[in-house]
């Protein structure tokens, strides 16, 4: 009886393991790894999905290249699964880096599109999301050419990662976007991607911001404006402040390298009136002086600080005015700041916050501190 | 002694020495010789050397010994020659002749009078010389054993860069000598016993009184008493016969070939079992952390030693995990890898026909084949095995696209990590395959099941009442001093708990040599 019991036990364990096990088993080389996806409106059906698949060839020095596949479907999931009928592969989404959306789709609202991407277990919400400045999103993947990498989506990914030292486009992950979309008092934004013709090559360029009301695209900001937006959102970690100073030989451009920035939004509430103070503290260093003016000694430096503060203030105020008049949405997050600071007051105001925003008074108080002048302590003196 | 009795002896001596128990020697020299001849029939190495004293012809003797078991020098110079040439008094009494010889004539170090036949037979077998005397019912047993032994060399399995090079040998007396030279204290106790109904192997329990736990000693003696086997060829027999958790791949009885290791373990309160004809001394209790301890750790700088010990500990974990985790990741959890790594692994696996599990299993088996082949192989042929192993199986297999390069890397890594803990090698190999199979079925989930199972097993077994994972599962500072790290000697004031609980304080050094500065 005893050996029989042992055999039975072994059979039960093996049966349990082997019949239920191996679920989701796939060999790594059989995966069709998706690098990026572009979503457009379809011709016959509702969605036209273009994916960039990493194509890995055999051989010792083989470099991965990319393969573009386009499919259509009534829902996102339907479109994505239709790929099987095109190439027999099931797409593997965990390593996808970017989602590109066409303006057409974005103007209709993108919540329904990103639902699949957020819900599915294989896809990840740390994927970066962009708006195509071209007619469709698919052509970015089809026409565009990477400069450093063969796979366009990976290049877009590293371009966005390095935006932190340029600050001309926001870096928005899908979960960032969802947070902005679902939170009170902040309207979502997205980086903008274009194709630029350079030396007869179509290179990719990420510059500017797309502005959303709820989940619908309503307009764009250019690169400079984006920088000011990022200043208010306290997202500037590095970048350049260019300042033109009057000098002896015409204007003398100076470049200040940003080493750090701290922005604090401060709601000032009095009776029924709400004002915002934007305190910006920037630490910079002189990195370029195209002239012989002396900005290194106290007098010149203080003047330079004052002038750049003034132009920063002007730029930010212009941006706020433009957003208030053109878009009327709170992409800066004044509302959520107020909610954090004065939750009771926010409860009363949240219903007509967008109207209030249009006339909200915002005072910008920039403070630029020049720390050093990099490795040169003088200007270059040109002599005979 | 009657002929009947002799016949009885003749019939039974093949089966049991115990039959000789109540037999005594007779007084006739020739009868006694015949008796011994009967016991050792068909054994021509037994030598009967008859001789008599020069002066008194009545003193007839016969030296009985085994050729090869004795030192001829002792037999010739210290036994035969003195008896031959001694000036015995004329009026010698036959009754005190044995005592006379014992006290005044024979020059050997250890001489006993004996008339019990079983004692006589066993002492001849140990290499003593028996001196039978005419008309005397007692014989002299003279210690004369001497045989060729292996020189003291450094053991191949436990090489050190720093520390004593001496290794234990097959001679129990030499081994005891090497231990006693390190612990010169009357508290060092050596309890002898014989195990093996045919081999009569001498086994010595060695411990330090007032340090070793009495309960463990009692338990050990009880287990040794229970052994009833025909022979002990190596201490490995005893190891398996007395161990706890008999089905576990982990050793619960330690073994070493280094006398300094034995001495250090004795000082910690452990008990050593020295077995004749075996260079491995067993130590109990044996706990998990001893697998990754090396004697060199205690001689080198403690920071360096701690680092080495950390490497050994971590390498046990990695050796069993690397193949399983690799397999889980490439077949189930590709999202866990960074994208560039996914691409490069995928690229190296393109065109490889076998599934990952199969190629890993085969490569690990091949590694074990090579290891086993190289162990038994003469050194010169071993080089050929190396070449075949590295070139043919490694490079060629990758180039022929039979296995992918990462599989080779994982196998090699796992193999090297296995060799870091030689004492755990058996356990590592088994667990590695177990983990690999589990993760081929359930991925990381299966691997975690395996880890849990092994952890539960390790935490549940004991060695002589001491938890196997002693000091690993604790957070108290003192218990950590000799586990994953090796604390400096000046801070290790206490013996390990439980094992050395009887006499915990081992060090009362007040101050270290110099000032404690950076």
Protein described:
The complex is a heterodimer of chains A (384) and B (518). Chain A has helices spanning 2-20, 76-81, 83-87, 103-108, 111-119, 138-143, 152-161, 174-182, 223-232, 298-327, 334-341, 343-349, 353-358, and strands at residues 32-41, 47-55, 65-73, 91-92, 98-101, 128-132, 189-198, 201-213, 216-221, 239-247, 250-270, 273-289, 361-370. Chain A is globular. With 384 residues, chain A is an alpha/beta fold. Chain A has two domains: 29-221; 224-378, Nutrient germinant receptor protein C, domain 3 (GMP Synthetase, Chain A, domain 3, 2-Layer Sandwich). Chain A starts with a helix and ends in a 14-residue tail after the last strand. The mean pLDDT of chain A is 88. In chain A, a hairpin with a 2-residue loop joins β8 (201-213) and β9. Chain B is α+β, with helices and mostly antiparallel strands. Chain B has three domains: 3-142, no CATH class; 156-286, no CATH class; 302-467, no CATH class. In chain B, β1 (46-52) and β2 (60-66) form a beta hairpin. In chain B, α12 crosses α14 (405-420) and α15 packs antiparallel against α16 (444-460). The longest helix of chain B has 30 residues, at 302-331. Chain B is elongated and about 105 Å long. The chains are: A alpha/beta (384), B alpha+beta (518). The A-B interface holds A 17-18, 21-22, 24-29, 31, 33, 54, 56-58, 62, 64, 92, 94-95, 97, 122, 124, 154 and B 330-332, 334-335, 339, 342-343, 345-347, 349-352, 355-356, 440-443, 446.
